[in-house]
Design goal:
With about 110 residues, the protein is an all-alpha fold. The chain has 6 helices and no strands. The protein is elongated, with a radius of gyration of 19 Å.
Amino acid sequence: MEAASTIAHAPMPQHMRALAEANRVRLARAALKRSVANGDVDTADVVRECPWEVQTMTVGELLRSQRRWGRTRARKFLASLALNENRELGRLTERQRQLLANALEAKRRLN
């Protein structure tokens, strides 16, 4: 009986902690993407602030979460800025982050 109570209080194995963290990030990203799609959250603000849930999200994935933005539109937009769609948001330099955010705001004003 003693062994069962010890197991119940043992810390989770590393792979279980990794799965729990991945699930937490996935759920947070899904909520953020829904907010972007609904227009509740501005994509330029997400790029500038780069919250924890988007650190490893690709630039293309964030852009495609906007309404009417598919792969082709995102690729053309990023090509005009010399940015790769597979670049992670957390790995953008401050200059690249500002360039992308400003271009998104300019595009939003045109539409």
